[in-house]
Specification:
- By secondary structure, the protein is α+β, with helices and mostly antiparallel strands.
- It has one domain: 3-Layer(aba) Sandwich (NADH Oxidase), CATH 3.40.109.10.
- About 45% of the residues lie in helices and about 10% in strands.
- It is built from eight helices and four strands; from the N terminus they run ααβαααβαβαβα.
- It has a four-stranded antiparallel β-sheet, with helices on both faces.
- It is globular.
- The protein starts with a helix and ends in a 5-residue tail after the last helix.
- The protein binds flavin mononucleotide.
- The site of flavin mononucleotide (FMN) has 12 residues, from strand 3.
């Protein structure tokens, strides 16, 4: 067994990476090496999964394919041609979730320098999703459409591993459900069959020093979401 000093150093390191990860929304165009991506994806696949089913599938997009996808989705966004891959949230978000959603949105607009009622500027900021916020690499997480809730958990854990491991390579990420608003286009451009569901996209790259990247989103105090029973 590891000694206590090793464990405390390990905890310190892991907790630092977990605490300091945040979604970045402005990336440098610097390339990310394919070997680094492969290391991260391979190590992330040590994620647990129910009965070791390993339901995750990944599509990694760069270069011309990435451009093609960006153009196709931006064109559809312009014409209002959105088709949801799946409902992420209930149509009417109740409290306290709605307030939390608003709070992070307003905090982000403030960093962008966008007034709350400047809807065209808000839309332009949202559309940056479809340029992967300038990142050179986009990841898409898919799984067999027939699988159920448990497998969604598994893919989520795999995604979290990617986000944490990326930090160890100096990379940053932004998970992006926004792509799922244009499900059929992502399927078509990336050749993803319809018996697979696209769970999320993700930008990955080296972060710029843009103000929006300084956002530290709020978290509830421990006692607000944890019950200790004895
Ligand atoms: C599955 C998932 C999908 C998300 N989709 C988007 C997205 O489409 N665009 C975006 O800017 N942020 C997206 N986010 C990032 C969240 O807004 C972010 O995680 C949350 O505000 C907490 O901030 P933090 O990641 O910086 O801690 C997503 C996060 C998750 C977990």
């Amino acid at each position: 067994m590891e000694n206590n000093n090793d464990l405390s150093a390990l905890y310190h390191l892991i907790s630092k990476i977990v605490r300091e990860r945040s979604s970045k929304r402005n990336f440098l165009s610097d390339d990310v090496s394919i070997d680094i991506l492969k290391d991260i994806i391979k190590d992330a696949s040590r994620a647990p999964s129910g009965t070791n089913t390993q339901p995750w599938k990944v599509t990694c997009v760069t270069g011309e394919t990435k451009k093609k996808l960006t153009n196709a989705v931006l064109e559809a966004a312009e014409t209002g041609d959105a088709t949801l891959e799946y409902e992420y949230m209930p149509p009417k978000l109740k409290e306290p979730y709605m307030s939390r959603k608003r709070a992070v949105g307003y905090a982000l607009y403030e960093l962008y320098g966008i007034e709350r009622d400047d809807y065209p500027a808000r839309k332009a900021a949202m559309l940056r999703n479809f340029e992967f916020f300038g990142a050179p690499v986009g990841l898409f997480f898919r799984m067999d459409r027939e699988l159920l809730y448990g497998s969604w958990l598994d893919v989520g854990m795999f995604m979290q591993n990617i986000m944490i491991l990326a930090r160890g390579k100096g990379l940053e990420t932004c998970p992006q459900q926004a792509w799922c608003e244009f499900g059929p286009i992502v399927h078509r451009v990336l050749g993803i069959p319809n018996d697979e569901i696209i769970i999320s996209g993700m930008s990955i790259g080296y972060a710029s020093k843009a103000r929006e990247n300084t956002l530290v989103s709020e978290r509830m105090p421990l006692d607000d979401f944890t019950t200790f029973l004895n």
